[in-house]
Amino acid sequence: MLGQIVLVGIGGCLGSVFRYLLSGIVQRSFPISEFPFGTLVVNVVGCLLIGLLHGLAETKQIIGPELRLFLMIGLLGGFTTFSTFGYETLALMRDAEVFRAMGNVVLQVLVGLTAVWLGDILGRVG
């Protein structure tokens, strides 16, 4: 168990550094824009990578449990949790759980934005 935690922790650390670097590079490439292109690119790249890794793990069995922990939960979890959100939503749709998938999308976005708004308000008062 400790070994698994270390794998996830090291991956998460590296993923966070990669997110910071990539987001900064992209955002500096669009200095005039107010749109968060850096975050968009990180989220799309993370989604592409988690899909690719899952496809390789499921069809070619070339990614073992430890590497999967390091890459999918650690590295990509630190890089962006949006990739996990995308993967879990796709898994629900693949299992013909369309309503649950759409519910996941609506809840994640609306509840997440509401939580950010509420946290901002709480941070301003206290």
How would you characterize the overall build of this protein?
- The longest helix is centred in the first third of the chain and has 28 residues, at 2-29.
- The protein has helices at 2-29, 37-59, 65-79, 82-94, 98-125.
- With 126 residues, it is mainly alpha-helical.
- It has a domain at 2-81.
- The mean pLDDT is 90.
- It contains five helices and no strands.
- It is 85% helix and 0% strand.
| Fraction in beta strands | under 5%
Order of helices and strands: HHHHH
Name the average pLDDT.
Answer: 90
In the predicted model, the low-confidence regions spanning at least 5 consecutive residues are: none
Q: Assign a percent range to the helix content.
A: over 70%
Biggest β-sheet: count, sense, barrel? Answer: none
What is the terminal-to-terminal distance?
Answer: 39 Å
Which overall shape is indicated by the principal axes computed on the Cα atoms?
A: globular
Quick take:
The protein is mainly alpha-helical and 126 residues long. The chain contains five helices and no strands. It starts with a helix and ends with a helix.
Strand and helix map with partners:
Elements: H1 2-29, H2 37-59, H3 65-79, H4 82-94, H5 98-125
Helix pairs in contact: 1-2, 1-3, 2-3, 2-4, 4-5
Which key features would you list for this structure?
about 130 residues, globular
